[in-house]
Amino acid sequence: MLGGGAFRTADCGPAACRSVTCFGARAAAIRRVLLDNAANYRKDHLQRRVLSAGLSDGLLSAEGEQWRLQRRVLAPMFARKTVIDFAPAMLGAARALIERWEGLGDDAMIDVAARWRG
User: For 12, 38, 89, 118, which has the most beta carbons within 10 A of its beta carbon?
Assistant: First the structure.
């Protein structure tokens, strides 16, 4: 655990792809990184290549002015009330997925990435 409620993931993957990933648990820290100080946290070449392969220049792969514009357009979708309104559907989908996976048995191997690709 780092200061301010943040924590760091372990380095994983090939040495050439390793990076430090930190997560914040406090709203003020998250706002500082994702909104107020976003220009200081640019995506590296590998992140942009991987993200843009499936997302084109969407919010997760865009940077700079393009990111700011997309964020402004999408912000209402992430307002507290909107997210709360989606919670029952997300919870239901998560429960259904857990039930399907539990039905596979204790020794089942699940390729999560393949499941998300369709």
Answer: 38
3-state secondary structure of 8: strand
For the chain, how many structural domains are there in total? 3
| Segment 43-52 long-range contacts (CB within 8 Å, at least 24 positions apart) | 44/19, 46/17
Residues 10 and 22 in one domain: yes
- pTM here? 0.44
Nearest CA-CA partner of 28 in 5, 59, 1, 8: 5
The predicted-structure confidence for 9-27, as pLDDT tens digits, reads as follows: 444 445 544 455 555 567 7
Residues 6 or more apart in contact with residue 92 via CB below 8 angstroms: none
Domain that holds residue 6: 1-41
62, 46: one domain: yes
By C-alpha distance, which of 11, 59, 52 is closest to 34?
59
Can you name the residues that pair with 8 across neighbouring β-strands? 22
